[in-house]
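ugh ok fine here u go
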Amino acid sequence: EGLVGSYFYVDSLNDTEKAKIALNLNFDMLGSPNFQRGILNGTSAVDCINKGSSLIMQSFIDFFDSQGLTWQLIPFTGRSDYGPYLSVGIPAGGIETGAEVIKDMDGRKKFGGLADTAYDPCYHQACDTYDNINFEVLLQMSQAAAYSLEHFAIQQDLKTLLGVTSA
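structure:
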């Protein structure tokens, strides 16, 4: 429930264990029916992780651009499971299709769907079932996640690339 699990996990790590984590990729709400293709704005991360979080953001931009898919930057608030990682200086980033926030007319023009309606009208409600998923956008977002994961997994010196200074 909430971010209890991610905070518990990160808080349970000692400094040596935290230093082994190069980055956190966050994939939350990837098939919202009235979707956006949102990329967490890593450029707003604090200085010590700004480079890494910005590079994570750029990996998603590169993927969506290569597919001719519209995207938008969304606030990097720490509101999802990446928040605890940010709080201990681990670069993070991710994508999402939206939850209870209301899509405005600009969002409708970019992504279609309905303005003045939540990205996911069933967010945390009984109707939030398999039938509430936009499978086309879920596939696109899953492909973006796989692209970014592979991009970072094949790096020879990931921590240097991300600007991570811990051991």
